[in-house]
Design goal:
Largest sheet: 2 strands, parallel
Number of domains: 2
Structural class: mainly alpha
Number of helices: 16
Strand order of the largest sheet: 1-2
Distance between the termini: 50 Å
Strand content: under 5%
Shape: globular
């Protein structure tokens, strides 16, 4: 019996991880541009370690964006420069995390989206361009309202699925990777988008809580020290149990939420995940519509459908 249990554990949990590790190549950034133009790259390179291991302020992110803009003006075919700029735009916009500041974040997101589009014009298969373009579009939708942005859903999902199916991974920070992040994004997508046939007919997208939980489990397996991965898995499980305290999803979801503080928060986004834990634990009805921006409510869904 013990051997059978171990065999099941290996097949279900260990084998997919081995397959994941064997099929992913770590993406290498073309840094030759930095070497050719060290004076232009200085403001970007200066803060790189601080970005990877800590929190930069807005002015530092603006300086990094400015440096990349100058480099791209000299090297317009440097594809990596476009997604690096999109990434900076995403982080800078995310620093405006209070509703009164969302109007400041929206133009930054729009600029990042344009950079992502230009990136794909240069290389339509570029995985990191796809990831950040979809992430910027999704972030913009969360600030403007999910249901007002349903027309973007199919493209966001398609871009993220391309990343999921790609042979590449990339570590943004010690606790956040590309493949973990894309599963994180898809998990939120499947939870927030309603599971309705009409939505699938009109917009070619459909939510699915089982897929949401599955994506978040994979995200946490890849990024086990990411506080946000724990928060969103716990939130998806609480949403799926629908307040049934006897359902195993409820107790498991609470345990993940309570473990969010185990990992170090490397940036303002991860700190926000830790700060939101108590809000969800106090009112578990928030779980299904929770985002780091506007709360999605059943009333909003009914107004659309």
């Amino acid at each position: 019996m013990l051997l059978r249990t171990l065999a099941i554990f290996v097949c279900v949990f260990i084998s997919p991880l081995i397959a994941y590790a064997e099929t992913r190549t770590n993406y290498t950034v073309d840094r030759s541009v930095f070497e050719r133009h060290p004076e232009l790259a200085a403001d970007y390179v200066r803060w790189q370690e601080g970005f990877e291991l800590g929190v930069l302020n807005r002015e530092q992110h603006r300086m990094r964006l400015g440096a990349l803009e100058k480099l791209l003006s000299r090297e317009p075919d440097w594809v990596d420069g476009y997604w690096l700029s999109s990434a900076e735009s995403f982080v800078l916009a995310s620093s405006y995390d209070k509703p009164k500041d969302y109007p400041k974040a929206l133009p930054i997101l729009e600029d990042g989206i344009q950079l992502g589009e230009r990136c794909l014009q240069k290389d339509k298969s570029q995985v990191l361009c796809k990831f950040f373009l979809a992430s910027l579009m999704a972030k913009k939708a969360s600030l403007e309202g999910i249901f007002s942005s349903l027309r973007l859903g199919y493209r966001i999902h398609k871009l993220w699925m391309d990343v999921l199916d790609s042979p590449y991974d990339f570590w943004f920070r010690p606790n956040v990777s590309l493949q973990g992040s894309v599963r994180y994004g898809l998990g939120i997508f499947y939870r927030l988008v309603p599971n309705r046939w009409l939505l699938e007919t009109m917009f070619r997208i459909r939510g699915n809580l089982d897929k949401s939980v599955a994506m978040h489990r994979e995200a946490l397996t890849i990024n086990p020290d990411d506080p946000c991965a724990r928060l969103m898995l716990g939130t998806a499980l609480l949403c799926r149990c629908r307040g049934d305290q006897k359902h195993s999803d409820c107790s498991e979801g609470v345990s993940y939420l309570e473990s969010v503080f185990q990992g170090r928060a490397f940036d303002s986004n991860q700190r926000l995940c830790q700060n939101d834990v108590n809000r969800i634990l106090k009112d578990r009805e928030l779980a299904c519509g929770y985002t780091q921006a506007l709360q999605v409510t059943e009333e909003q869904e009914k107004a659309v459908f």
